[in-house]
Amino acid sequence: MEIQPQEIAYKKEIGKLKGVPVIEVGLKGGLHLVMVARKGKAETLGVGPHRAVARYIAKKKEKDLELT
Q1: Of 3, 66, 65, 62, which is closest to residue 32 (Cα–Cα)?
Q2: How confident is the model at residue 2, as a pLDDT?
Q3: Which residues of the chain have pLDDT under 70?
């Protein structure tokens, strides 16, 4: 899925995963993504219709995820 810059409503850092910043991206259509950069590539940890759902899925996938 390719996301265009005009589709992004907000982007902010929400925590760390093994010292690497974790970013939450909200799209104008209502989709929320929790992402991390690993080995130079963006990896999606969780996606959902609400930011809490995306964070829950990310936390379930990565036990070491520290949300602030």
Answers
A1: 3
A2: 87
A3: none
The structure's pTM equals 0.90
Burial code of 40-67, b = ≥16 C-beta within 10 A, e = fewer? Answer: eeeeebbbbeebeebbebbbeebeebee
Q: How far is CA 65 from CA 2, 3, 6, 9, 50, in A?
A: 25, 24, 29, 24, 18
The vertex-23 CA angle with 60 and 46, nearest 5°, equals 30
DSSP H helical segments within 1-68, as ranges?
A: 51-61
The pLDDT, as a whole number, for residue 6 is 97
